[in-house]
Write a structure and sequence with these properties.
Helix content: 40-55%
CATH architecture of the largest domain: Up-down Bundle
Number of strands: 5
Largest sheet: 5 strands, mixed
Order of helices and strands: EHEEEEHHHHHH
Oligomer: single chain
C-alpha cells in the first residue's frame, strides 16, 4: 500500500489515520506543481485529478479523496475504533463531521492559498471562515474530540486543515475550544510521529 502525499497538505489526514490504525504502508512524496513523484514518476498516471492524497492498494486499485481514504484505512482495522460501525447512527454522524471538514473547513481555508486572491476576495473569504469556525467552536463545546471521548478519522482531517490557520494569520485564540482541540490532537504520539516524518515538527 502506497500513500501519495505532500508535506502538510490535506494528505496528512490519511497519513495520521494510517499510523493511528497501525497500517504498514509506503509514503511517496509528490511535487504538486510539477505533478511528479519523488522518483520522477508522472503523478497524473496515479491520480488523474492531479492532487494528493492518493492511496494505491496492493492490487493496483487507487483511492482518492481525503474522507474516503481515511474511512477505508479505518475500516480495514475495525479494532482501532477510528470509525463507528456501518449502519449505526454514529457512522452517519462521523460522515457528517467528515463532510463538514471537507467542504466547510478544508475548502474555505484552502481557498486562501490562491495567490490571485484580491484583498477584497480575501476579506470575503475570511468572513466565511470566521462563520464556519464560530460554528465549529460550538460543535466542540465540552468534547475532547469531534465524536466525543474517542479520537476518530474526523479529528485527523479537522486537525490537518486547522493546522493551516497560522499560515494565513488566522488566530485560533479567538476560539478557545478549537485552540485547545488542535493542541490536544497535536499531542497524540502518532500525530507527532506524522509531523516528524513530514518534516513539520516544531
Amino acid at each position: 500500500m502506497q500513500l501519495y502525499y505532500s508535506p502538510g497538505a490535506c494528505s496528512m489526514a490519511p497519513h495520521i489515520v494510517a499510523r493511528e490504525a497501525g497500517h504498514a504502508f509506503d509514503l511517496v512524496k509528490v511535487n504538486i506543481p510539477e505533478k511528479k513523484t519523488a522518483d520522477g514518476g508522472d503523478f497524473w498516471k496515479i491520480n488523474p485529478k492531479g492532487y494528493v492524497p492518493a492511496l494505491q492498494l496492493d492490487d493496483g486499485n487507487v483511492l482518492t479523496e481525503v474522507a474516503i481514504i481515511c474511512q477505508y484505512l479505518a475500516d480495514q482495522k475495525p479494532d482501532s475504533g477510528l470509525v463507528p460501525r456501518f449502519g449505526t447512527l454514529e457512522r452517519y454522524r462521523e460522515m457528517e463531521w467528515l463532510n463538514f471538514a471537507a467542504t466547510e473547513v478544508h475548502k474555505q481555508i484552502g481557498a486562501l492559498f490562491n495567490p490571485k486572491l484580491t484583498p477584497e476576495m480575501k476579506e470575503v473569504q475570511l468572513g466565511v471562515i470566521e462563520r464556519r469556525l464560530n460554528a465549529l467552536e460550538k460543535m466542540l463545546e465540552g468534547r475532547p474530540y469531534a465524536m466525543g471521548e474517542r479520537f476518530t478519522v474526523a479529528d485527523a482531517y479537522l486537525f490537518t486543515v486547522l493546522n493551516w490557520a497560522p499560515m494565513h494569520k488566522i488566530d485560533l485564540g479567538k476560539w478557545p475550544n478549537i485552540k485547545a482541540y488542535v493542541a490536544r490532537v497535536a499531542a497524540r504520539p502518532k500525530v507527532q510521529e506524522t509531523l516528524r516524518v513530514e518534516g513539520l515538527h516544531k
